[in-house]
Amino acid sequence: MGIFSFFSKEKKETLDKGLSKTKENVFSKITRAIAGKSKVDDEVLDNLEEVLITSDVGVDTTLKIISRIEDRVARDKYVTTGELTAILREEIASLLTENHTEDLESFTVPEDKKPYVIMVVGVNGVGKTTTIGKLAYQFKKAGKNVYLGAADTFRAAAVEQLVIWSERVGVPIVKQKMGSDPASVAFDTLSSAKANGADVVIIDTAGRLHNKINLMNELTKIKNVMKKVVPDAPHEVLLVLDGSTGQNAFEQAKQFTAATEVNALAVTKLDGTAKGGVVIGISDHFRIPVKYIGLGEGIEDLQVFNRKEFVNSLFGE
Ligand SMILES: Nc1nc2c(ncn2[C@@H]2O[C@H](COP(=O)(O)OP(=O)(O)OP(=O)(O)O)[C@@H](O)[C@H]2O)c(=O)[nH]1
Ligand SMILES: [Mg+2]
């Protein structure tokens, strides 16, 4: 970290604002869970367990958190309910940082992979194309030469939507007409990017095909074709999940990670939902880093995910 904390006041405000519904939800439930109680006892812990599960944290992660708090209560003998949110924040933060994935500090890509190829996957409507636009904007701002590839050729408006983002951001896009072979678009994009010395290539893909097997086969095909141009591509398979769907996002992550080699996650639409707790479960459960979080529809509304900042924002510092 440099002289300045990478988490500026502005970013913190965006994060706090984006997570405000989840925060309200969690806090109001905790308030009810401890109503009339001064001490953390079994009943409070049972209620807390319910709060976390109904806040989309997920059962496994909730049980881990509760067992840590139980240990702490047993050790410290008398823990007041007033101390509960501080304890929750500490225990969740330490749980999340135990999974050995690193938090990003800024929008960067490894210098030694040129071009660094990101293939973006996820079911329809989760925010893939929007996330690509926001990412392209951030990478360009960081001085990178970015190329976009419109390999979602399944839907008429899909190519057009990515074209609009490329114009907004001011980066080149490689496309073909609707219905063309996505693998061929990916091939063209990588060839063009390589020839022009691009630093980053981001490939959009379809979220919906005739069925799930088709979709997975197609992703495999796109990956294989990329390797003909850049042998170790894609460097990043970024799975986008819609955080506002709560446990459904969790299920999608399970299915995609089983079907294809996902190595990064983005959780979108955390603004306007009370289900932001799902990020805690996802971050704990999958040994894949949550790299980015989407906090709105605007071009600036994407942040690199930082576990401590996230927990602090939810439970207060
Ligand atoms: N509030 C909010 N809306 C978002 C966010 N990310 C994406 N959206 C919105 O979600 C909708 C779908 O986003 P897209 O980027 O088109 O999703 P997609 O995954 O590319 O969808 P398909 O191309 O149909 O598979 C759009 O209206 C976006 O503006 C976010 O972080 N917050
Ligand atoms: Mg799209």
Order of helices and strands: HHHHHEHEHEHEHEHEHEEH
Approximate strand percentage = 5-15%
User: Can you list the strand order of the major beta sheet?
Assistant: 3-2-4-1-5-6-7-8
What is the number of strand segments? 8
The main pleated sheet reads as: 8 strands, mixed
Cα-based radius of gyration, to the nearest Å: 21 Å
Overall mean pLDDT stands at 92
Rough outline: elongated
Figure out the total of helices. Answer: 12
Salient structural properties:
elongated, alpha/beta, 317 residues, 8-stranded mixed sheet, 12 helices, 49% helix, 13% strand, binds guanosine-5'-triphosphate, binds magnesium ion
Describe what you observe in this structure.
It is a single chain. By secondary structure, the chain is α/β, with parallel strands linked by helices. 49% of the residues lie in helices and 13% in strands. The protein contains twelve helices and eight strands. The chain has an eight-stranded mixed beta sheet with strand order 3-2-4-1-5-6-7-8, sandwiched between helices. Helix 3 (42-54) packs antiparallel against helix 4, helix 4 crosses helix 5 and helix 6 packs parallel to helix 7. The structure holds guanosine-5'-triphosphate and magnesium ion. Residues 122, 124-130, 152, 158, 207, 268-269, 271-272, 294-297, 301 line the site of guanosine-5'-triphosphate (GTP).
